[in-house]
Fold this protein.
Amino acid sequence: MIPSLPRPAWLRAGTVFYAVLFFAFLFLPLAVVAVFAFNDAPYPAPPWRGFTLDWFFGNASAQRIGLFADGPVLASLWTSVVVASWVTLLSVLVGTANAFLLERADFRGKAAVSLLMLAPLVIPGVILGISILAFASRLAQFADDMWGLELEFLRPGLPLVVLGQFSYIVSIATLTIAARLKRFDRTLEDAAYNLGASRGAVLRTITLPYLAPALIGSAAISFLMSFENFNTTLMLVGSDPPLTVMMYGRMREGATPVLNAVSLFLMIASAAIAFVLMRGARSTQA
Amino acid sequence: MPHKRLLLGLLLAPALLWLFGLIVLPHVDLAILSLRARVAPGEYAPSLRQYGTFIEEPLYWHTFVRTAVMSMLATAFTLLLAFPIAWTIAKIARGRARSLMFVLCLIPFWVSETVRTLGWMILLRESGVLPALLVQLGLTDQPIEMLYRDATIMVGLVYTSMLFMVVPLIGALESLDDTLIEAAYDLGGNGWSILRQIIIPHAAPGIVAGCIVVFMLTLGNYLTPTLLGGKNSLWFTEQIYTQFITRFNWEQGAAFGFLLLILSTAIVWAGLKLSGQRFGDVMRRA
């Protein structure tokens, strides 16, 4: 019950107890991953054999290949960054256009389009993946049959991964940006027009600066969702896997603590992004 | 005004390219693919053979039903576990404690599902942390294998869904006016009747939004069931993957994909009908 009503002691104690258990449940797996990145043993398992940094800096001469010497892991990390950058760029650009379409434009079938824009959020990622895979390969087949064209980008590989992830991440970017555009006070634009500003100048000096927090926020979310995506990516991936697919493959084989090391690296990186974003959010509120 | 039409066209083009090129046409193609059968090399005829196989082969529809039931259970467990925390954050905690708890709920989900699953594997496998702990405490003689069980898959699914339940619940509970609860209390309501008659009806939109998103994500999950459940997981997305990627039987995989899509759409629709809500509102809330 709420604080303004009498709460028996057992209920207060129970609330605290439950909260502690709940957060232990949330953080236990992450803590374990982080701790075993430093265990001096060939597998991430107890018992504790002492502290080592081998799983970060080890190389062939140390008999252990650490994160910064593990070619395939570093390559997949880079692949993930490249894919996520493309997805972010596309999602923010198209998301912004969509937001203006939803909030400013009027056309026949607008209700249907705005509903359809939400559909990717309720389609399981695996199905998005296979439908795009099948459709792209039909297009490639068609181009080959009709014009003898070999369209390599329609075969499983990174361009398809980017498109597959983009297909639903742009929905989220659209929602985020449209929500902010909706709250925009249009009299500000009218005032600028009255003062003689051109359309481009109004967009550049008034509307886009107002939208900036939503643009940055949706860029961060897009990057992160792309980086973490597994389901859609797995169906569309070609010969160079992004990090999640690479990690999945190694986890099935029983991996060394290098995976813990790369995981810890990811945790720190996303914590840093989160921290910067939250500070940014606070400074725009003030 | 031709100028205006041009602008509308420019805004509409990326949206239509996205919606038709990556969502509508690929799914139409998937439907066509699922409804044809190879009669000779390179020759196809319309057929319901794939759907027939699904009904005749017990493994397939057992897996289908099992995935649906486990997803519903996981959704229910997630709701039960998330509700007290959402209540604590929305109504009981104040000031810094409150924002700290909220951020603590978010942090684990900034890290990819692969990393979180790695944590659970290190905790639960036979050579892992919890079995070793049980032996040390004298509860078991031998370390027991805790992976590859249904309960383990359930823990993983609930864990990975938690955020998507907590956030909409907090949103719904925050908007509940405390004076309503006080009034109900003054009129002689007890904890249970207030929960049933005031809190749950008010929070229903948030509950439905959370349940829909969690159910969808669970049904379409691939990573958690395959890694925590191993060969015993029998998750339907695995069947889709096997048909599409391993066996290269795209017709069968497309039929499975469609069945999963129909199931997920039906449940989402039923959830909306039962609570009398509109799709667009729910998605914007989630």
Summary: The mean pLDDT of chain A is 88. Chain A touches chain B through 85 residues (CB under 8 Å). Residues 71-255 of chain A form a domain with the MetI-like fold fold (CATH 1.10.3720.10). Residues 103 and 182 of chain A are 6 Å apart (CA to CA).
